[in-house]
């Protein structure tokens, strides 16, 4: 059962999200909070698998709350939800440690899919988010070649998987590309995240481009 904490200053929004999520077998809402400070307390108390976090709230906003929740290891993953399609929110959320970013205008099924993905440790990597992450990551000159010392710990296959993850490919797509099973891909992804000290796939994309492992057009 995926345990979810809902954080939004509007009770009607929380009610709507609860209705959507609890319509899906395997998801239950274990708590609600109307601001970031209460969200921290609830996260520490409940240890949810996923927190659906609003960005703009009184007392403490979702970005500050996310940073503290991630720092204290109080939740499995944080999904940022906002009505604003702004890059500054996206990248501040990622910097704070969020594992996904979804507009409140998304379809109900997209919210369910996002929560399910984050609970599985996959992170939310929509093509649009991937494109914007890549654009920001390569706004400064790239290294001539991969030089990060962490790369020495990766096997050749793990490095190959990392490059495919950086394109936004799903586990099934990577499996088809490498002619292996999805379970094998999941193992490789888990291992490379652990070796690089990275939370999830979306931060692996950022890391890959910032360290020259992946390049635009290559």
Automatic annotation (TrEMBL):
Keyword tRNA processing included in the entry's annotation: no
Stored SUPFAM superfamilies: C-terminal effector domain of the bipartite response regulators, CheY-like
Alphabetical list of Pfam families matching this protein: GerE, Response_reg
GO terms, biological process: phosphorelay signal transduction system; regulation of DNA-templated transcription
Domain HTH luxR-type: 147-212
InterPro entries, A to Z: CheY-like_superfamily, NreC/VraR/RcsB-like_REC, Sig_transdc_resp-reg_C-effctor, Sig_transdc_resp-reg_receiver, Tscrpt_reg_LuxR_C, WalR-like
Swiss-Prot/TrEMBL keywords: DNA-binding, Phosphoprotein, Transcription, Transcription regulation
Protein name: Two component transcriptional regulator, LuxR family
Organism: Brevibacterium linens
